[in-house]
Amino acid sequence: MFYSNINFCSFVSVKENTNGRPQPLLQEPHYGSRPQPYNPYPSEQQRYDEMCAGPGYGEPFGTETYRKSAPPVTAEYRDQRNTHFQQPGAVLMVYGLDPLRTNADKLFNLMCLYGNVARIKFLKSKEGTAMVQMGDSVAVERCVQNLNNVTVGLTGAAPLSHHNNVKDDKNNQSEHKLQLAFSKQPFLSEVTNPYPLPDKSPSYKEYITNKNNRFMNPAMASKNRIQPPSKILHFFNTPPQVTESELVQVFRDYDVVPPKAVKLFPMKSERSSSGLLEFEDTTEAVAAVMACNHAAIESPGTKFPFIMKLCFSSSRSMTIRNGDNNSNGAGEKRIESEH
């Protein structure tokens, strides 16, 4: 076999630059699209559309249709919503919480009435204090305006590990006054190893993908009426055949003072029921919301339980008659209704 030492490069036409180095004949290709202009302030409609893309959102709980049509929560979807929740002025401080009975879920049950809740973090260095990151600054303003200086009753039984502790201190108070204030912190960072609260629940929880947030899109937000705490609660999304005694038992199961009167509304459909609950005072009603909002109620013939939803009612009173919508079986009770 014949081998040649001919330099084949001498036959290739190569452009020479001024310093003697060869230049490529073709320009380096571009991969992917060019950078797009950054828009830090998307429109409200765009923000809600991106956060709640796909079917299933805003439908009532307790039906198989909801669970089958709801899109799966992917990492990309979670990151997208996480970005939208980090808005300036969306963090508030909550002081005066019951250090033994309050946990992240109970605080979420109350705060979600005034806006989307992103994260809740309890402070280990300051007992009875938590930081809450809401969806935006407007939700923070609603919380401060409606919940500051509100008195809360007992939201359940004390953890078993504290039953033997009979010291007469703030842990054994039957009422606690909430103090809310704006925080300078722009957002809450993720806590990978939160310390346990007295009830063994984590001191930090995320609610960005929680479907119990009620302001996730314009349609859902328009159904919410912002009301200050009152002694009358509106309940909805309960089983269609639920009874007054069953509703009262829900609050007893959560170790809170049950309502003294229940009024079921005439059913508009067979999908769910709704009505009013009257408590002795606002203090008991707020405790009931924290403990029993989003409580699961089983219903015969359904695969999944109904998730009862509570909110403060604009009605200041209601009419309860003998044997009609009276959970305590008391005699005729006349209460004026405000509409």
**N- and C-termini, Cα separation:** 106 Å
CATH hierarchy: architecture of the domain at 84-159 and 168-209: 2-Layer Sandwich
> Structural class, please?
alpha+beta
Kindly state the mean pLDDT as a whole number?
77
Beta fraction = 15-25%
The overall strand count is 13
Tell me the series of helices and strands, N- to C-terminal: HHHEHEEHEEEEHEHEEHEEE
**CATH secondary-structure class of the domain at 84-159 and 168-209:** Alpha Beta
Classify the helix fraction into a percent range: 10-25%
Task: Describe the SSE topology.
Layout: H1 44-51, H2 64-69, H3 75-85, E1 91-95, H4 104-111, E2 117-122, E3 130-134, H5 137-147, E4 151-152, E5 176-177, E6 179-182, E7 204-206, H6 218-222, E8 232-238, H7 244-253, E9 261-264, E10 273-278, H8 282-292, E11 296-297, E12 306-307, E13 309-312
Antiparallel strand pairs: 1-3, 1-6, 2-3, 2-7, 4-5, 8-10, 8-13, 9-10, 11-12
Protein name: Heterogeneous nuclear ribonucleoprotein L-like Protein
GO cellular component, one term: ribonucleoprotein complex
Domain RRM: 90-185
Describe this structure in words.
The chain is an alpha+beta fold and 339 residues long. Among the domains are: 118 residues, RRM (RNA recognition motif) domain (Alpha-Beta Plaits, 2-Layer Sandwich); 86 residues, Alpha-Beta Plaits. The protein contains eight helices and 13 strands. The strands form four sheets. Strands 6-1-3-2-7 form a five-stranded antiparallel beta sheet, covered by helices on one side. Strands 9-10-8-13 form a four-stranded antiparallel beta sheet, with helices on one face. A two-stranded antiparallel sheet has the order 4-5. The longest helix has 11 residues. The chain is globular. The termini are far apart.
